[in-house]
Amino acid sequence: MHPFLLNGLEKLRAQANGTGSDRDQAADALALLVRLVGRTA
Amino acid sequence: MKIERVRLKNFAGVDEAEVKFSLTGVTLIHGPNETGKSTLMTGIDVLFDHRDDSRKEEVRNTKHVNRDVGAEVEADVEIGTYRFTYFKRFHKDKETALTIHAPKAESLSGREAHDRVRQILDGSVDTGLWQALRILQGGNLEMPALHDQRALSEALDRAAGQAKSGDKENALFEAAYAEYGQYYTDTGKEKEPSLGQARTRAAEATAKEQGLQSELNALEADVTRHASLEKSLATLKRGLAGLDAAQAKAQATWDTVSKLADGEERARSAKQLADQAMQTAQSALQQRNELIDQVAAAAKKVQEAKSQHDKTTAALDSATGSLNEARTKRDAATATATRCDAEESIRRADWEFREEEFELVRMKERLQHVTDADDAAAQASAFVSTTKITEQLRTKIRDAEVLLKTKQGILNSASPQFSITALESVSIAIGGEPITLEPGQARMLSVKEPVSATIGRVAEVRVEPGTSADTLRQAVVDAENALAKLFAQASVASPEEAETAWASLADAKRTLADRDRVVKEHLRDLTREELAKRIQTSKAKVDAYEVKRTSEIAPPATSDECKAFLASATTTAADARIVQKRAEAVFGEVQEHHTRCREEHARSSATLEREQQDHDNAVGRLEQTRALSSDAALVSALAAAETSAKTASANFTAAENQLEGADPESAKSMLETATAAAKAAREQFESQDRELIGLRTKLDLLGDKGLAEALAESNRVTFEAEDSLARLQRRALAAKLLYETLSAERQAMRRAYVAPLRDGIERLGRHVFGSTFRVDVDERLQVVSRTVDGVTVSVKQLSTGAQEQLGLLVRLAAASMVSKDGGVPLVLDDALGSTDEGRLEAMGAVLRVASQDTQTIILTCVPERYVHVGAQVSAAMSRSIS
User: Fold this and answer.
1) Hey, are the CB atoms on B165 and A33 less than 8 Å from each other?
2) How large is the ipTM?
3) Which residue ranges make up each domain of chain A?
């Protein structure tokens, strides 16, 4: 996976595991990324 | 890829040409226009890109312009580990030949050779970059299209320390963008068809639910109000009957009071009529008395006006007398002043006449002086012209006279002397001249010539001078002759006459010299004619005055007497004028007083007339009214009216007492209170009854509508809409976060990706634009702007020369980056045409530095432009079109 994808993935994962108000939104974005990876595979 | 050699034969406009290139550094191909420089590159392109049997336009254009022969192109090329010679002939005797020298010798021909070269090229050469890095004629300002150039992208990826993103990553990013695009526009706004519609649906459902809830709440309030109204209406109905009875009773009381009030009103009217009749009678009598008073007052005023009129008449008569007296005095003073003025005028004229007369005499004298001077000058001039004496002649005469006297003196002194002394009185004749000597008297004689002396009758003595005396005598004669000659020249007879003539000549000259002075002194600024004319004019005045003067008194004989008479007359005239002015002032004051008296008299006359008229009018009015009604009749009418008024007043007082006893205010108040209470209760009853009917109708209608069921359904719809919106928003926000996160990371990576190219451009550009030179390169590897000394300018705004230089810098930087992988040649055809001399030197240095590992081919018709480059190979091409 290209570094820009890896960096994006790490950033979203950190937000989802954090305590900020955007953690649910980050979790949703991660789930969407997984769906898109599956769709484009 | 590197090109070692190219040969063209019968190719387009070139008969035959061969050029060898340096594998690194700059090869400069120069020559005039149309010598085939650009055709070299065309030949390489056609050689690599087209088969020998191709009919494409690019190939058709290679046909020789004059000969019907095959166009040939051959090149020695190095690509990676490959080194080969490649040949093609187009159009006629078509042929393709490939000879591979390394790494392994091969010989191929025809299509097989073409495909083999394409295979080598596709595996090792980025042909897109090869085309992009060229600068063609007229294309100096274009920035190279470097994006998606494989070799450059790989070089940049390696420089950025990572692999270039592949199709899979791009597809994933595109999918994230597509997901984001379902909900948002590129500018980040929500899209209406998805989120907007869901939000609208939820809002509409909520609004509908709130409306239904409001309706239900209102219904419940209406039910409560209906029950309350029914109870209130029953109470109001019972109270209305009692209020109606109380109102009827109060009305009866008020009717009785109303009748008493009518009687009181009638008595009041009768009283008012009687009062008015009495006032009328009083008024008539009062008016009569006032008229009588007015007549008396008018008579008094007439008397006063008459008295005043008499006074003003007397004053006017007095003022008229004073005015006549003052006028007489004024007229007398005026006549005296006029007479004195006339005498002063005569005395002044006399004085001026004598002055003129005196001036006339003086002018005549002046003219006479002038005439005399002219006459004397004429005589002197005649004398000067006739006289022969001159100063020299006068001096000669004087000298001759002195000489003569000297000679005579010498003669006298040298002559014998003898003396005769008388002893007694004796008569002696010496030289015939008788003389008488008294005793003791002596006479001395000098003998210059023989002389005889007869002494009485006594003796004759003869004396003769000696011989020397003759000589001296002759000298005297000569001197006398000389003097006589001079006398003849001067027309004089003696020295005295000569002196007199000389003095007369001097006088004549003085007279001539004095003439101008005398003329100027007496004529002054006039000419003789003007002076004469003045004399004539003056004489005419004098003569005319004597004729004109009519006064019986003769004019004084002298000017001084005239002046004295004039002074006396002037004083007398001034005094007379003062007296006249005083008389005028007195007359003015008296006249003013007379005018005032006349005005007063006129006013008093008018006043008397007006007062008399007023009196007559008042008397007339009084007589008219007395004719209608006498004074006694008016007194009787007033007494009768006073009696009637007293009776009516008594009747009114009685009716008033009766009404007051019935208490009308209380009766009225009771009636109004009862009426208002009944009316208010009835209105309240009717209002509540109408409200009750309305509520009953409304409740009947709403009872059939099923509001509670509708509200329950609306609650469900609202919940579903809001839930749908929340889920959609969550998906949208997730897509937004994902896209924005990936996009940010991708941007950061791309910035790192373009950094090596940007650094390369800036490193080279500092040679040209200085140490502050910076460029901004976008993701498509396009230079967006240039910054120098902190000033940033977009590429499109740069000058033509700067754009040209920047375009070359970008190509050089890109070529340097790919040179380690073999790279591609950098071809510059007629570049830097808009660059000045200073920048050309800098660009030459940049080309030299950047081409150390790169093959750079410069084609130009102006080789001087690249003198600073230091080309490895320089080849000239001459015109070869046959």
Assistant:
1) no
2) 0.96
3) 3-40
